[in-house]
Amino acid sequence: MELKNIILEKEGKIALVTINRPKALNALNSETLTELDYVIDEIEKDDEVLAVVLTGAGKSFVAGADISEMKDKNVIEGRKFGILGNKVFRRLENLEKPVIAALNGFTLGGGNELALSADIRLASTKAKFGQPEVSLGITPGFGGTQRLSRVIGVGAAKELIFTGKIINADEAYRLGLVNKVVEPEALLEEAKTLANTIANNAPIAVKLSKVAINKGLQTDIDTALSFESEVFGATFSTEDQKEGMNTFLNDKKYLTGNFKNK
Ligand code: DAK
User: Fold this and answer.
1) For an engineered disulfide with 240, which of 97, 174, 193, 202 has Cβ 3.0 to 4.6 Å away?
2) Ligand 1, closest atom to CA 82?
């Protein structure tokens, strides 16, 4: 597929995905969502890629779903658009490789919902966050009513969604929406360093940790802990577990960077 709105680059063990529609502040139209779906396919298939950094070109991460595309949609078309977005965001959330969102600027509406589908969020001091949908006569439609409250708590999520207010990066950090705030020039390097740190750990263990956390959040604590025991047990069938523990015992160091993903 020819990509018009997204750049996919590989740097060692990392895939760098840049939403690249700066003229529209990277607003998500159907074409961009379809491309993102394709990019997730490519990353999923590529065994060399062990972590993903997701960012935006220009002064915006993503300024929301594309209002000019949405405005004339009828019910059927609106539903189709919603289904596409939800499918892509869920795929990203469940991708068995960690995704770090490097939030460089406007992270609004569908953009904030995209960021919430990532595992870890880093923000530039210039980033702005919000769910302004109610100011447009709609509700958040790509998971905002669900994921935002899971990440920052119900009260804070309701305040952001009901008011539609825009907050800065420090406020987003205070609310727990982002893990860290860094200077704009440092953002991408910081995200890549974090991605590499993760990618240098045992890939199967990282993947299973993500699956256990995500699945556990959907269920009761007993089922979740039982699932944790299953995945913990499964790691003992890997070469990486044997080699990782032997290296530690014999050489007094971790195998970091040398795991085989087997
Ligand atoms: N959609 C389309 N175009 C956008 C856009 C957006 N969300 N945001 C910005 N743009 C375009 C602007 O129209 C402008 O285009 P031109 O006039 O140059 O052609 C260009 O990007 C530059 O924007 P500005 O000139 O406005 O730039 P400023 O720096 O002055 O302002 C801003 C930046 C981010 C404060 C402002 O652009 C703004 O307020 N943008 C809208 C932000 C917003 O309301 N975002 C939420 C969108 S609603 C659903 C699923 C999901 C959703 C809904 C339904 N279903 C289930 C169906 C999600 C909804 C949303 O995300």
Assistant:
1) 202
2) 56
* pLDDT 10s digits, 178-188: 999 999 999 99
110 domain-assigned:
yes
Whether residue 153 sits in one domain with residue 82: yes
Over residues 36-42, the mean pLDDT reads: 98
Q: Show the domain range for 128.
A: 6-199
Q: Which atom of ligand 1 is nearest to the CA of 85?
A: 50
Residue nearest to atom 3 of ligand 1 (CA): 24
Please give the Cα distance from 210 to 208 (Å, whole number).
5
Its pTM stands at: 0.97
In a domain, 257, yes or no: no
At 224-242, the pLDDT tens digits run 999 999 999 999 999 999 9
> In ligand 1, which atom is closest to the CA atom of 64?
61
**How many distinct structural domains can be found in the chain?**
2
Mean per-residue pLDDT over the chain, rounded? 97
Return left, alpha or beta for 105; rule: phi > 0 is left, psi -120 to 50 is alpha, else beta: beta
> Catalytic residues, which ones?
113, 133
Query: Are 152 and 219 found together in one domain?
Result: no
Whose Cα sits closest to atom 14 in ligand 1? 24
Tokens of 166: 């825009």
